[in-house]
């Protein structure tokens, strides 16, 4: 009998452990927070088609259209720069509500625009709301998510950006048959609807447990962690890690404690990020800013914003066909970002990112070569038209399966607690500046070096990006947010002890706590 029991025990040891069910409460919070990203996605998508009709109705030049489409990225810098301090001050949740309210006002102004100057005012207001949304959604989601599914949940903002782009493309097609003066105004004004839904839905969300700890509200943080963790043990360990990162003594178990204003408001953060960073923080800053730069410098906004222009250069002339081809771009982007969400916590960040950027390079170079052939051919080459469309779809697919979502996941999870909100904001600033430069110069660039030359340039930048990612970005899969700094520099162990021995913990692929 003893031998049989021993045999059963040994067999049980080899049985695969069941993966815990995904935390539904944390998923619901992540979905609600990530809905803010619809605002940016819708604006990008809708402007790609609305620009054609704005140009005809307001009689503006190509340069004015470039500025109109790209300037919102620079306007969003104001929101992103303010969002880090705002979210440390009023909390992550109310910052999301503020983002939705500001964008609502901007969408209404754009919808009622009577001239180019009025439209630019609406773009300014909407841009500030987008800046807030871009920074706060991934930060909140990373802070509320258990480590076992953080990659899955933190990729939601990119999912909703793509969903918003698709909705924008569909809106273009739906309103394109209306009278010229009415059609583009409805395209832009309808963007106010998601912001209203967002403002109402966010009220059902809890505040970020890390922000609650930073404000000394430990009891509330403990309750939120209990709901958003995979187990009671994980909730306890997450709270201990957050308290340590916030400088709160391990033995302090009061529900409410006093936290100094310096801890509360994140004072001195910019000095720690840029003026006097530790080697680990310097590496983190370079990695975060670099991944945001290369995500945009590889030309994704040029493809998404100017896809009708690209398809027109490839040989498609009908407005309806151009908009339908653009909808295909949005559909492919959305499908592949959904695939990516389920792979992030299984495959890891580095393999997905490197594979993604490699695919982008191949797609960009092939697209550039094909458009160059079309540009130098007097006859209509059907094979080249088909290949151009295929390469655009291939490019957005490979971008969406890696570089798109991982940029937001990675940059929101690698910063230490005190530096996270404003560090993430700095990444968004780089993202929007780069996007603004690309989107505001693409038409001029393709006239200067041809459209094929422009995509050869993007392909070269993407190649440099692949080298940067390979050399500078360590894997972060499965690590808690408080352990992340150890991947970039000298490992800082958890101060809590077991039998007098320091220990750290990680969450494995099955969502179980591992002590070492």
Contiguous helical run count: 22
What top-tier CATH class fits best?
Mainly Alpha
Largest sheet report: 2 strands, antiparallel
Find the CATH topology. Growth Hormone, Chain: A
Number of domains: 1
In the sheet with the most strands, the strands line up as 1-2
Radius of gyration, Cα only, in angstroms? Answer: 24 Å
Q: Distance between termini?
A: 35 Å
- How many beta-strand runs? 4
- Uncertain stretches of 5 or more adjacent residues: 1-18, 261-265, 490-516
Query: What is the string of SSEs from the N terminus onward?
Result: HHHHHHHHHHHHHHHHHHHHHHEEEE
Helix/strand/pairing class, anyone? mainly alpha
- Please give the share of residues in helix: over 70%
Per CATH, which architecture?
Answer: Up-down Bundle
Describe this structure in words.
The protein has 516 residues and is mainly alpha-helical. Helix content is 75%, strand content 2%. It has helices spanning 2-14, 24-34, 37-58, 62-90, 92-111, 116-144, 150-154, 156-175, 180-189, 192-201, 209-214, 218-228, 232-245, 261-265, 269-275, 279-297, 300-305, 307-314, 319-347, 349-375, 382-413, 417-472; strands at residues 497-498, 501-502, 505-507, 513-515. The strands form 2 sheets. Strands 1-2 form a two-stranded antiparallel sheet. A two-stranded antiparallel sheet has the order 3-4. The radius of gyration is 24 Å and the shape is globular.
